[in-house]
Amino acid sequence: xxxxxxxxxxxxxxxxxxxxxxxxxxxxxxxxxxxxxxxxxxxxxxxxxxxxxxxxxxxxxxxxxxxxxxxxxxxxxxxxxxxxxxxxxxxxxxxxxxxxxxxxxxxxxxxxxxxx
Length: 116
What we know:
Immunoglobulin-like; globular
């Protein structure tokens, strides 16, 4: 499990996150038939502000055999005002085994300008 801080992201951009899941030996975990969920919440809150789930169009398993998934989610200022957020990533394998992959902070900064 990764704990720590993720790279800062602007609340006016697409948050892109690519993760390769490996086991304790460094071998890729096969994600065929797996489900992945990423939750983002305000510090000390119980419920996530938003949850992304594999197959929702924003979170996709891009290379199941090699354990790779990617998130591409547009952030906005209304949902994500500048601040620190908590992120959790949960994996449920086809076998039913669940693993927490990430528990980390995500700094969100005001991006100042909007693209048209």
